[in-house]
């Protein structure tokens, strides 16, 4: 695929560049609680603006239902993007309507314009190819060329991700190029020992990743809510912990396959339990063989955290996706903190797989530069590691 570097060499002064960004940031009302995705795409936008392009940025935020919803407006993002870039970012109160058109016409070389939420338009996410293509054509009218730097959306066959690239000359932004470079290392020829740490709520969300990586890793570490289905597969009582009964047999098959391959599938030996799912619930640490029937596990225990950290310390390559517990509750954040800190302190090539893992790094105040790479796309990075074809990347490679 062609990249931003090639576009900059061709020259963009005076040209209109439509940039698809992933500015889907968490909001508390109108306050941005984590600007990581804005900071991640800022270098691409800044480089284009400084090279004299007329930059029109588009993105989605949240899941509005195909019509305007003030709760999902990108207005706060425009202000924050301007602060990060150190230049004014104009904001259009619609996506392809009159305000967007007027502000795009008024743009001068080096200006940046952010359009309102793409998902305020039904054509963005439509499964009807004609409806999606029509909206893509309206978007494409804002650019002479198209740059996709929204890695967090490349697994979606949406108008701004897939169809616009059919209309305009297209390039991958620096963020997408970096993400593909990093993730290809994890699926290609990673340096061993290679450790994959998986957490999060549901084992069903990670089945395809486990299936695709099990024969490539030396150790697969499992924590978070998904660990209880594996523990149940081993015959343990898991109390009222999160459990996917329909996945128990699948977990048994993975345990057996790991043994056949000589891969260590490492599960927790203890867990921090609570009587209810609440931040102020009294924690009680128990071995996984002694989980009370009336309690639920909300974090891996200290012995498990120590064990997981030891595996990370001995690794050359580590991929981590999914927290080890309910890190939003202080009493149940220790497992996630220990695993993340072990990655920071290790000499391994360490990749954090976006989503809740990236949020945990920032919430817990860990240094982002302590990791080799923090992905901006949780779902996209997982699907890449599953070996799936991602529509957004296919469009750029065409």
Automatic annotation (TrEMBL):
Query: What domain of life?
Result: Bacteria
Q: What is its main location?
A: cytoplasm
Reaction equations catalysed: (2R)-3-phosphoglycerate + ATP = (2R)-3-phospho-glyceroyl phosphate + ADP
Residues the entry annotates as binding (2R)-3-phosphoglycerate: 37, 119, 156
Question: Would you tell me the Gene Ontology cellular component terms?
Answer: cytosol
- The EC number(s) this enzyme carries: 2.7.2.3
**What are the BP-aspect GO terms?**
gluconeogenesis; glycolytic process
Residue positions binding ATP: 206, 297, 328, 354-357
Give the location in the cell: Cytoplasm
Q: Which PROSITE patterns match?
A: PGLYCERATE_KINASE
Q: Where does substrate bind?
A: 22-24, 37, 60-63, 119, 156
The entry describes its oligomerization and partners as:
Monomer.
Entry protein name: Phosphoglycerate kinase
Per the UniProt record, the source organism is Glycomyces buryatensis
Q: Which gene encodes it?
A: pgk
């Amino acid at each position: 695929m062609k990249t931003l570097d090639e576009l900059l060499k061709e020259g963009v002064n005076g040209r209109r560049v439509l940039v698809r960004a992933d500015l889907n940031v968490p909001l508390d009302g109108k306050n941005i609680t984590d600007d990581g995705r804005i900071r991640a795409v800022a270098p691409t936008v800044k480089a284009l603006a400084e090279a004299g392009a007329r930059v029109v940025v588009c993105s989605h935020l949240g899941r509005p239902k195909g019509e305007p919803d003030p709760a999902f407006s990108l207005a706060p993002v425009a202000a924050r993007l301007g602060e990060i870039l150190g230049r004014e970012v104009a904001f259009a109160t619609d996506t392809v309507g009159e305000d967007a058109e007027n502000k795009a016409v008024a743009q001068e070389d080096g200006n940046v314009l952010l359009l309102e939420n793409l998902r305020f338009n039904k054509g963005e996410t439509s499964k009807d190819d004609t409806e999606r293509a029509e909206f893509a054509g309206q978007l494409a009218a804002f650019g002479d060329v198209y740059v996709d730097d929204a890695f967090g959306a490349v697994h979606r066959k949406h108008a701004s991700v897939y169809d616009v690239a059919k209309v305009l000359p297209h390039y991958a932004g620096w963020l997408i190029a970096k993400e593909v470079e990093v993730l290809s290392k994890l699926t290609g020829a990673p340096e061993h020992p290679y450790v994959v740490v998986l957490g999060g709520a549901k084992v069903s969300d990670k089945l395809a990743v486990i299936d695709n990586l099990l024969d490539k890793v030396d150790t697969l570490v499992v924590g978070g809510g998904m660990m209880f289905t594996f523990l149940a597969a081993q015959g343990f009582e898991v109390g009222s912990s999160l459990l996917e009964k329909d996945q128990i047999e699948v977990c048994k098959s993975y345990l057996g396959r790991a043994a056949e391959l000589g891969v260590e599938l490492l599960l927790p030996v203890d867990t921090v339990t609570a009587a209810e799912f609440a931040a102020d619930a009294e924690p009680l640490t128990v071995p996984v063989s002694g989980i009370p029937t009336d309690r639920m596990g909300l974090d891996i225990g200290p012995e498990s955290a120590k064990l997981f950290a030891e595996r990370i310390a001995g690794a050359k390559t580590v991929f981590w996706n999914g927290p080890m517990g309910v890190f939003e509750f202080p009493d149940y954040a220790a497992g996630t903190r220990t695993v993340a800190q072990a990655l920071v302190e290790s000499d391994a090539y360490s990749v954090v797989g976006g989503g809740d893992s990236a949020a945990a790094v920032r919430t817990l105040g860990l240094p982002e530069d302590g990791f080799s790479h923090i992905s901006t796309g949780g779902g996209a990075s997982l699907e890449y590691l599953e070996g799936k074809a991602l529509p957004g990347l296919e469009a750029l490679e065409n």
